[in-house]
Amino acid sequence: MGTGKSIAALEYARTRHPHSEIIVITTAKKRDSGEWYADAMKMSLRQTLVVDSWNNIQNYVGRDAFFIFDEQRIVGNGSWVDHFYSIANTCDGWILLTATPADVWMDLVPIFIANGFFRNRTQFNNEHVVFSRFTKYPKVDRYLDTWVLEKYRDEIYVEMYLERHTTRVEHMVDVEFDLAEQQLIYRDRWNPEENLPIKDAGEMMRLLRKSSNSHPSRLEAVKKICADNPRVIIFYNHNHELEALRTLMPELDIPMAEWNGHYHQPIPFGDRWIYLVQYQAGAEGWNCITTDTVIFYSLPYSYRNFHQAKGRIDRMNTPYEIMNYYILKSRSIIDQAIWKSLHRKKNFQASAFAKKAWPREEAPKRRLN
Fold first, then answer.
1. What are phi and psi of 137, to 5 degrees?
2. In terms of pTM, does the model score above 0.70?
3. Boundary residue ending a domain (156, 191, 215)
4. How many structural domains is the chain composed of?
5. pLDDT digits (tens, 9 = 90+) for 112-149
6. How many whole angstroms separate alpha carbon 214 and alpha carbon 211?
7. Are 245 and 297 in contact (CB under 8 A)?
8. Helices vs. strands in the chain: H and E counts, helices first
9. Are 110 and 75 in contact (CB under 8 A)?
């Protein structure tokens, strides 16, 4: 992140395909911000440039143009992947930009197919994947002949090297949680909001996270951080967290803006401000060089989102040298499990977590009614 991928991609298109129209497929935020056009103006690019979002990729199937796919979305079997295959087979050329290429080999299958290494996903599975026999859904047990996959990967990867002038500093901020409520939800599988048994693992995870992330100590921690840092970006997950964070504006008398599924407001100006960003909506595709501080109000399940969120302020043109990341984490069983996965650069697997029993050393003796 922050290595100048956009400029490099435009220069590649101008040099290798000087007579082609250039179509950029990117996030809605980057499309609306106009930064691709700004980069093209800096380069005095004379080719026709069209910038649109991934949601409209189907409109460009069959176009004779050079395509730049910005922010990796080519994963799985969805409609975007199908449209990507159609474009890759007929366009003048294409390049894909991403700061987080893949977590596992399966993520690279569409790129391998588009480059002609495999006819389809079935061939890839037959030659390189062993699926687990003990799950009801397809789960990869291991990969075969990974040296072949490494060879294909090395043929298509072009790494962008950057000697950064910044240093990332993580500040772990301990916050409190309600142990009794966590035990009630996780050990006893009881919904304290409805006073009913929990129906499934999804409901349990939602309640655990809400219980942990709603504790008042989180807001108090944010207030202290904002007192020492005038301009702050805060990442969060759920709407109930957003509602709590919104109470900071009248209390602290600090301008506030939001980027989420409902509001796409720009980053505020001025000496003091707070920018609230929902992980799924705004973990990638934009940048900010007017602050050196990010608060992770709650932890995401995805390491990719966590890594991308850090990169929003760590850009090669930032005037700051120290990037400060404040990570709010309680000692609740759910926070500890999520952080363990993120620390290992892995995604948190909620389904596997839901099957575990409450730790014996923390479980109080049951009372007989």
1. -120, 160
2. yes
3. 156
4. 2
5. 999 999 999 999 999 999 988 877 777 788 899 999 99
6. 6
7. yes
8. 16, 14
9. yes
